[in-house]
Amino acid sequence: MLRGLNFPERPEGIRAVPAARRMAQKKGLDLALVRGSGPGGIILVKDVENFRITEKVAEKKTEKERILASSLARKLAEKKGVTLGGIEGTGTRGRIMMGDVIRTIERVADKKVSIEEKVSFGQTIPLTQMRKVIARRITQSAFTAPHIYFFTDVEMDELLQLREEILRDFEKEFNVRISINDFLIKGVALTIREFPMFNAMVKGEEICVMPEINIGLAVALEEGLIVPAIPKADQMGLRRIAQMRTDLVDRARKGKLKLAEIERGTFTISSLAQFDITFFTAILNPPQSGILTIGKTRDCLVPKNGQVILKKIAHYGLSVDHRIVDGAIAAAFLQSLKNRLENPTLTFTQL
């Protein structure tokens, strides 16, 4: 189509169609940098357009490479559509960490109307990336592992009293505030030592009992739950459990957890004791075989030794994978845990 047409050369010997020259001049582009694809190397309009696209991609790539950021921070920023260039890094040499990206996202969210105010009946809300991951994992768990559930009431009076008695001295000596969750982590780990099948996972045609008892504690974030785990919790004392639990929960809320700290869990504890929720069921955290749920501790009148007395009661639930754990074993596990928590002096004073 261009054959027979004569395109005069510029002094520097560059041959281009007039429309390509006009576009290059408008864009401030040096035609000497453009490779022509027309007959005899003539620069066409598409050559100028393609060069501008390639140049922009290269500029973005170069700018991206200049910014120091961890791989997790880059992935999160890409998912959330956040520009790394405007984030101040707190890592070594100003490296942008995952927590820096999360704080930026939170600041942006604070400026927006809350989700409760934005949602209206009939509205369709797209799933966030985190909700997609949660949905996929929970659906996998619900349809892969046949769940069975068990419940019991646990008297919390003695455990609460023990915590109150040691709280001040414990904090003064170890510089960490012990919580009921720390007792639960240790109590569950000791009970799993008695019932190893609660530390098992299904892998293909086999049931694998994991060598370490790593207890995960569900932490609620704005977009969903994350479950960092205490490794070898059965071998740790309450001081170390409290210190590690405090650190993991704090870093979970700042987005500074390592992937290994999330994936190493072999059993999960999920507590809603801070809410006015008496009991609830939970879907297993795959590929784990058990999850313990704890509701709010409440005052209840209980018959005891011919009298009706006031006791502090919490409702505990246990969800298990029926492929691994049978009902009688699950009931025995929950009964053993109940006995440990209702007799905390025997369970914890030597730890």
Short description:
With 351 residues, the chain is of the alpha+beta class. It has twelve helices and eleven strands.
Element layout with pairings:
Elements lengths: L17 H10 L17 H22 L4 H10 L17 H14 L3 H4 L10 H16 L2 E9 L1 H18 L5 H15 L5 E4 L2 E4 L5 E3 L1 E3 L2 E3 L2 E2 L7 H17 L4 H5 L3 E5 L18 E5 L3 E7 L2 E15 L5 H16 L1 H5 L3
Parallel strand pairs: 4-8, 8-9
Antiparallel strand pairs: 1-11, 2-3, 4-7, 5-6, 9-11, 10-11
Architecture overview:
- The protein is built from 12 helices and 11 strands.
- By secondary structure, it is α+β, with helices and mostly antiparallel strands.
- The strands form 3 sheets. Strands 1, 4, 7, 8, 9, 10 and 11 form a 7-stranded mixed sheet that branches.
- The chain has 3 domains: 66 residues, Irregular (Dihydrolipoamide Transferase); 59 residues, Dihydrolipoamide Transferase; 217 residues, Chloramphenicol acetyltransferase-like domain (Chloramphenicol Acetyltransferase, 2-Layer Sandwich).
- The protein is elongated.
- A hairpin with a 2-residue loop joins strand 2 and strand 3.
- Helix 1 packs parallel to helix 2, helix 3 packs parallel to helix 4 and helix 8 packs across helix 11.
Beta-sheet strand percentage?
15-25%
Number of domains: 3
N- to C-terminal separation? 88 Å
- CATH classification, class level of the largest domain: Alpha Beta
Task: Give the biggest beta sheet.
Answer: 7 strands, mixed
Order of helices and strands: HHHHHHEHHEEEEEEHHEEEEHH
Number of helices: 12
Which class do the helix and strand fractions yield? alpha+beta
**Rg (CA only):** 30 Å
Total beta-strand segments: 11
Portion of residues within helices: 40-55%
Q: For the residues shown, what is the average pLDDT?
A: 83
The CATH topology annotation of the largest domain reads as Chloramphenicol Acetyltransferase
